[in-house]
User: Fold Glyoxalase from Pseudonocardia broussonetiae.
Amino acid sequence: MTGPVPDLADLPDGITGLRCVDHIAVATRSIADAHRLYGGVLGGRFMNGGDYAGTGIRTLQLRLAGGMKVELLQPTDPSSYLAAYLEKRGEGLHHVTLLFDDVERAIGAFSSQGYELVDVDLRRPAWREAYVRPRSAFGTLLQLVDSTVRWDVPVPGITAQQVLAGDVVWDEETELPRLRGG
Assistant:
């Protein structure tokens, strides 16, 4: 973003319809290792997770005390974008996910202020998203989303142990995790 800094008094509250920071995502080489910290030492409660078909990525999401969620990301395929990311940047913060009332409105607000958006995907009502490039957001990858699914409650019948074992996949139709083959 270039140009003069807008006067904050000129920006109305809620210009983008931000509901909350849904979660932060941490890129790891091993979710099991990271789970010992975030699920063990920090006491995170399992929410959901699984393997994303065709991406070579496994996720595990935990809710920490106070309601903050952390999503742990691990490559399952050495040719995945996440494996390349880890090779180049190492483990650590990957992105911050912001939940909006209407992601299209948020996209418009960010674009109108000069922020560079990429990977806009509005096809799936359960998870519509766009990303603000890190170079446009002070070094942080921002994921802008809206959703028809409640992500603040655990998915019944799915456990962290099943996710860690690779027994859970994200269902492409429902956008929810399910047991592999189920």
Summary: The first helix runs from residue 31 to 41. The first strand starts at residue 18 and ends at 27.
